[in-house]
Fold this sequence. Notes:
This protein has 80 residues and is an all-alpha fold. The protein is built from three helices and no strands.
Amino acid sequence: MHERSxxxxxxxxxxxxxxxxxxxxxxxxxxxSLISHVEGTGDFAQRLHLxxxxxxxxxxxxxxPNCGDAMFFVAGMTNI
Length: 80
């Protein structure tokens, strides 16, 4: 059975670490590009108020909001 030397093992870990570092850079740049293209209309408080009202109307009508809507509502309420 072939046993790897310490140098080979370190070289393998260095390649993996380099790949993960490059992947991190690419994901960061992609996220920044995505964020720069997202725009909203109106101020944040106005949009949050309209979104909260639509969630409450939907809940009163018997339509349950999905988990994403509920998390957005809770996250938005904590920023006020």
